[in-house]
Amino acid sequence: MSYLGDNLGAQIIALLQSNFVEGCCAASAISLVLFDHASTISAEIQFIWGRKLTAVTLLFYANRWITFAWAIMSAATQLIEPTSILVCTAIPFTQEALALLLLFLWAAFSSVRVYALSNGSWLLVFLVFLLAVVPFGMNIYGDYWDNTFQFVEMPFAAILCAESSTMSLSLDIKLATATRVCLITSDVIVLLTTWAKSFLMWRDARRLGIPAPLATMLLRDGTAYFA
Predict the structure, then answer these.
(1) Which keywords are on file for this protein (predicted)?
(2) Are 125 and 111 in contact, with CB atoms under 8 Å apart?
């Protein structure tokens, strides 16, 4: 009995330590998002509000405010103690839905970027979008179809939502690897397209005798985004 008690105590301590680290990481991410919104809201009002709605401005609004909503839901996940299986399931599922929307928006943003830099090459647009949207599809499967939550009361600790999956570790690794490869390939295509456009503009500027430092070209065309 002493062994079982010691083992249970060690498990509770490990769980609390894990939750503490997770909470600290979540608090850091939430703080960064809220600070970014607070420090840039004046610039948003000046440069974005009142502009005609286009695909670009819609992407901006969606990305900015869905990120804000994700931060609020992340805070709720950390602060609200689950009192039922409904609460245990609803908050994480809502947070994951917002994260999925962000993945889709980032795929759309990469596609719009390639469209602008490639002079409207729909082949590159579709290729980048299909590769970048793979994490969206994979996470739908992992977060909803193969994920369950249980309402668990830990002795002398807390009431927790236990998340479980029926996916094997080997399959999880394979899917994660495939997802990362697709996403990296998408970013490489965007990066190469950016470099090609920057080189053409730098060459034309040099031919016309216009000063065009390479660093300026890369920063303006957004290569620093991939650093």
Answers:
(1) Membrane, Transmembrane, Transmembrane helix
(2) yes
